[in-house]
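**Backbone geometry record:**
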Amino acid sequence: MVNLELNKDQMLAMGDAALHHVVDYISSLPQQPRSELGNVEEMVRGLREPLPEQGTPFHELLDFLMTRVIPKSINTAHPAYMGYIPGGGLYPSAVAEFIAAATNRFVGAWFGAPAASRLESNVIEWFSQMMGYPASTRGTLTSGGSLANFSAIVTARRHLLGDDLAHGTIYASNQTHHCVMKSAILAGLPEKNVRLINTDDNYRVQPEALEQAIRDDLAKGMKPFFVVGNAGTTNSGAVDPLPALAEICRRYQLWFHVDGAYGAFFYLCEEGRRRMAGMEQSDSLVLDPHKGLFLPYGCGCLLVKNGDLLRQAHALTADYLQDHVTPEGEVSFTEYSPELSRPFRGLQVWLPLRLYGVRAFAENLEEKLRLTQHMYQRFLAEPNFECLNAPELSVITFRCRPPRGEVNEFNKRLLKKIVDSGRLFLSSTILREQFVIRVCILSFRTHQPEVDEAFEIIRSATKEMQH
C-alpha cells in the first residue's frame, strides 16, 4: 500500500521545487506573452487523459503544469493585462492560501477553529470600517461577487417577501453585471420579475425611470423589494447616482444593495469616496478583494448592515451540530452563508493587510485612478479616437473612427490585431449597440511605463490598419 504521508525531506523537496518554479514564473512575467491561445483547441484535446492507475514523479507533473498548462491562457498576472477586470495575484496572499490549505483548519463553524474564525471576523470588521458600515454589520467571504450577490438577494427576499416569490420584483440598471440576474433566478424569483432600467449618456441608471418602474409594479399588485446600485459597472466603470437610489429605497421601504465587486475598494482613497458617495447608505454591499485588493482569484465578500438579517436568512441547525457553541460577539460563518464546509478563506486577506497596511492599498488604487485619467487624456488628444464616456474609475471605453469602412468591423479587427501581437491584452463590450474596446487598469503590477506602452501599441496598430 502506498503511504500517502510524505516525510519531512520529501515535503521540503516538493515545496522547494514548486516554490522555485513559481518564483521564476513571477520574475519573468514582463518577458512573457500577454496571452498564449494559438491552436489552443487542438492543444486542449491533447490533454485528455485516462484515469491514472499508477503515480507519476512530482518533478514531471510540475514541469507539465508550468510548461503546458499555465502558459496556455490569458496571462492575467502580466503588467500589460488590461482586459475585463484584472485580478491581482499578490504573492503573500498565495502564501497565505498555501498555509491555510496545508494546515487545513475547518472555519465553517466557530468551534472548529476559534482563533482562525476570529481572524476572518477581523477581516469582515475591517471591510465594514473601510466602507463606512456600522458595528452591527456582519458578512462572509465568498468565492466571488456572484455568490455574494446571491446571498444578498436571499437575505432581502427572506426579510421582505417571505414565501411570496411570484410577486417580488428586483430593479437594476441595464449595465448591471449579469450575475445579478442569475442570482435572482437561483434565489427563486421569476426571470420576468427582474427589471433592467435604462441608463443615461454616462451609462448610469436613471432614478426617474427607476421610480416609475416601481410605481408601475405597485399599481399592478407586484411587490418591489430590491434595488441594485452599481459602484463601478464592468462594461464602462459607471457609478450609479447612489444617494438618489438610497432616497428612493427609503421612500418605498425597499432593500438598497450596492454591487461594488469591481469598484468599491476605490472608496479607500479620497477621490474614490467622492465618486461613490452614498454607497455607505446601502443595506448590503458586495466587494471583490480579488479585484480591488489585488488578491488571487476566488475571494469575494458580502456585507449586510443589519447582520441579524443575514443570519436569519442562512442559519439552520441539526442534531450533529449540537456541540456547536458560539460565544457572544463571535461569528460562526455557516450561520451567515450557504456554506458549511469552507476553507480558511480569510487568511488570504488578513495576511497582506497586516503585512502592508491598508494605506499601501489606498495608494495603489489612487495610482490606478491617475493612470486612467492620463491614458484617457491621451485618447482625447488623438483625432482618430473617441471615448464613449469619461471614466469614473479605471475603465476606459474607446474606439477608432476610420476614414472609411464600417466602424464596428474596423474596431473588431483592431482589437484582434492588438491581442494577436502578444504585447497587450484588452477586451471589448457593446455600448449603445456599438462595438467598443475596453481598457481596465487595476493590476498592482501596472504602472506608468506599462500604460504609456499600451497606448503606443494601440496607436501603432491603428495607424498600420489605416494604411
In short: The longest strand covers residues 223-230. The radius of gyration is 24 Å. The first helix runs from residue 8 to 27. The chain has two domains: 98-358, 359-466.
